[in-house]
From TrEMBL:
Its EC number is 4.1.2.4. The gene is deoC. PANTHER family: DEOXYRIBOSE-PHOSPHATE ALDOLASE. This is Deoxyribose-phosphate aldolase. Catalyzes a reversible aldol reaction between acetaldehyde and D-glyceraldehyde 3-phosphate to generate 2-deoxy-D-ribose 5-phosphate.
Amino acid sequence: MSHPVPTTPAELASFIDHTLLKPEATDADVVALVEEGARLGVFSVCVSPTFVPLAVARAAGRLKVATVCGFPSGKHVSSVKAAEAARSIADGADEVDMVIDVGAAKAADFEAVEADIAAVRTAVPGDRLLKVIIESSALDDDEIVAVCRAAEAAGADYVKTSTGFHPTGGATVHTVTLMADTVNGRLGVKASGGIRTLADALAAIEAGATRLGMSGAASVLAAMAGDTPTAPTSDY
């Protein structure tokens, strides 16, 4: 399910979750991220759970604040994921991006995958978004389809390709297309991991992505504006 491709930097910025999930990130880095995100006009910033209160305070309503849950492995007890999500919501997060138990998906235990997502959904109220990171590069096509269906059945708002930390890679046009076709507009699709260039970003949107996770938003938006971009510092 493809979408109109943005033609201006402002249109493209509205798709972007400007992301900083490096374990070595500092308060100063998060402040800089929020200020840059506000200047660029991105949809949100995505930060680690410990930084949610700071990001919310600095954002001051100028942009949304997203965070992660069960990150990056997904190998957390469901009740722990739910507690982590609940804390982030209490701290003011607008969106939570949770990681599934990828091993359960590989074992074809999609009931367990659905139950895990549903547990986190109970902690994320309906006025806040829940995105489900499926780590698509570690799954085959049938597994991707099944996990997307489990996410929808559990009440998720989005399916998301990748953490950006898995060694097998991140988003691909094929995967985004498959995910978008599976949810068919009923859920959003977030492409993340390895989106480093303007061409990457536009291709993902054309394939059906309704949100993009990237750390190099400034360079991509500069490229769209025709300016000389600076290289992004990381993939996530």
